[in-house]
Amino acid sequence: MLEALIFICFLLSLVFIFFKSKPQYPFIGDYLTIHANRHRLTEWTSENIRTSPTLTFLVRRPFGQARVITGNPDVVQHILKTKFSTYQKGFFRTNLFDLLGDGIFNVDGDEWKFQRQLSSHEFSTHSLRHFVEHVVDTELNERLLPILTTAAANDTVLDLQDILQRFAFDNICKIAFGYDPAYLTPSLPHAKFAVAFDDAVRISSERFRINTPVLWKIKRFLNIGSEKRLKEAVTEVRQFAMKILSEKKQELTDKSSIQSVDLLSRFISSGHSDEKFVTDIVISFILAGRDTTSTALTWFFWLLFKNPAVESEIVKEIKDKSDSLIFDEVKEMVYTHASLCESMRLYPPVPVDTKTAIADDVLPDGTLVKKGSVI
Fold this sequence. Notes:
By secondary structure, this protein is mostly helical. It folds into two domains: 2-90 and 355-369, no CATH class; 118-292, CATH 1.10.630.10. 65% of the residues lie in helices and 5% in strands. It has helices at 2-20, 31-36, 41-51, 73-82, 91-100, 109-119, 125-154, 160-177, 192-209, 214-222, 225-253, 263-269, 275-306, 308-320, 326-332, 334-346, and strands at residues 56-60, 66-70, 87-88, 356-357, 361-362, 368-369. The radius of gyration is 24 Å and the shape is globular. The two termini are 48 Å apart.
C-alpha cells in the first residue's frame, strides 16, 4: 500500500513538472503543456515566440508529430513569398476540405493562380468604388445606422459582434453572389444558412486544436457528434449556394434581365460550369469577407471604447472630411487608417496561417525543415 502511494505521488510530481515547464517526451511530446493552455493557445503561442531568440520554436505533438511555429518576419516572407511554391496547404487543406473544397484558400499551384487572377478584378479601384458607394453605403444607411440609432434612443443593449457579423454577411453575399440575404434587418432574423455557416466554420476550426487528428476522422467515419453536425451544416450551406448559383445562371441567360456584376457572375462567364467548383470559390469568399471583417471591427470598436482620446481624434477627422465623396474621404482619413491598422496588429482577425513543406528546407533563422513538416 505504501509503495503504491509513493508511486502515485511520484507520478503526480512528474505531471506537475510537465505542466509547469515545456518538456518534450517520447509519444506524448508537449501534449500536457498544450492541453493546459488549450483555452489560450494564441496567447501561449505568442509567449513562446517572444521568448525564443529567433522568434521561432518547435512544438512536438503526440506520436512524434512536430510543428514549427514562427513570428519572425524574415521567416514569414521566406514561406509566403521567397519559397512560396515549397510551402503548400497540406493538412490545412485536409481540415477544411469538407467546407471549402477546392476554393482559393484551399488550393495551390495553377488552381490558386487562376482563382486569384479572376478574383483580383473584384478588388480593382473601380470595383471597390462601386462596392463602397452602392452596396456598403446602402447597408450602412438603410440597415446598420437605423438599428444602432433605435438601440441608442431606447437604451437597448446589442451584441455588437453579432450586429457587425450580420453587416459583413449581407455585404459579402452581395459582392459574391449578387444576392441580398437581408440578415441585418430590425428583426435580426435567425437565418438557417447563416447558422449552418457558423457551425461549419466553428467545427472545422476545432479540428486544428485536436492533438490527435485521428479522433475527428473516426467521428467523421462513424458520423457522430460534432462531425455529424458538420456534415449537416455543410450540406445546408451547399444547398443554399447551389440555389443561388442556379438563379444566377438563369439570370445570365435571360437577355431581358438586368445582370449584376459580381464574383459569381465572373466565374460563370469565364466558362466554368462545374457547379461544385464555383460554389467552393464563393463559399471561400463568404468566409473571408464575413468573419475577418466583423472580427476586425469588433476589436476596433472595443479599443475605441477603452481609448476615448483616440475616439475623439477619429470623430474630429470624420467631421473634417465630411464634405468629400464617401470613397475619397476614406482614403484621406490617415488617423483612422492608422488606428485600424494598430487595432489589427494588436488583435489580428487571422492570427495564424498554416503551411506544409513539400521539400526539405532551411529557414532564414537557421531552422531545419523536413519535407512534410507543418509550419
